[in-house]
Structures are given as structure tokens and as C-alpha cells.
Amino acid sequence: MTNKIKSMLFFCAVFWSVAQAQAGWFDSKPAAPLRAGYTCCNLHYEDDWISDSNFGSLPFIPAGTPVRLTSYGSNRLYVDMNGKDMRIGLDYGRAQETLEQFAEKLIVADDPKAKIAQYPATVREAIKLGQVAVGMSKEQAVIAVGYPQRDETLSLDAPVWNYWASSFSPYRVMWNKNGQIAEIVTDPVTASRMVYRKQK
User: Which CATH code for domain 113-194?
Assistant: First the structure.
């Protein structure tokens, strides 16, 4: 065998190895699990798209909706949401959590409707409307309006959670030392959308 042929075979072998490594053949990291369960909270959507911004002015899929994770994409979860194909994007919190962690908090094993049924009537009504109310616990607020963006609220122990009703309509949830909502700070229009007011 000539040196030229040997060189060609060597470079072909190197090329094949690199190609297979890029394809994941030699990746020892196990694939992330495909979860199934229920939506943790009210998830706002546009067409087939749900973002971790979870804009409160959009329509929402209620907490406790059956959901099955079918595959992972690039900063995307592909899910079957009660028979409808949807995509969920980790758009803003990529530096703070992995896609698998994102999936774990949105797709829960236990149906939150069982918890919701035990809440006071005003809290149940607020959750049904996708709104927050003074006096809510952190668990209740998450179910009602979802998790705040991780890039703007680094910890759920923070005294303020930052939310958005739209890209131009922020609102802030202020917590007291007992872990209850003390105040919701926003403009009047956003308050009318996102803050529950008991009907008289």
C-alpha cells in the first residue's frame, strides 16, 4: 500500500470519527428524561408557542392540563398538551437553568387541581382568571401566573418577583416576611388585567 493511499485512509478515518462524535455517537451523557404529567400553572400561549416570559395578556392553558414531553430541541421543549402539539421556549432564563430543569418545574407529576380545590374561594377564582391577589402564597401565585423569568428573578426567595403582562407592561409582586403577597406594583391598565379584585 502506497503512502498516498495510507494518508487518504487515515484522513477518512479521522473525518468519520469527528462526524460521528458531532452526531452524538460517542456522547456518554444520558438523554434527558421525557416527562409526562400536568401543567404546573397557567401557561400563556400564542398559536403553538409558550415562552418562559409567560406574558399575562395572552390566553392561557389552565394549570393541571395533561401534558407529555415528546422531545427536546435547542432551548425548546416539544410537548403534547392534552392532544395538541405545542412548543415551550426557554427564551430568557437559559443562563440560570437547564432545559431539563425548566421541564421539571413546568411538568409536574401531581395534578395541581387537587391543591386548588382546597384554596379559599377568592384564590380559586383568581387562579381561574389567571390573576394574582394580595394575600396569596407563593405556591398560589405560581399556579395563577406561572414562574417569573429566571433572568429577572434569580431566586423564589427574593422579596420581589418580576412579571410581564406584555413586552411593555411589567408588574412586580412584593412579598411580606410570611411569604404572602403584600402588594402588586404596576400601572392601572396592567393591574386591571393581572390583579384580582373581588366582585361586589
Answer: 3.30.1450
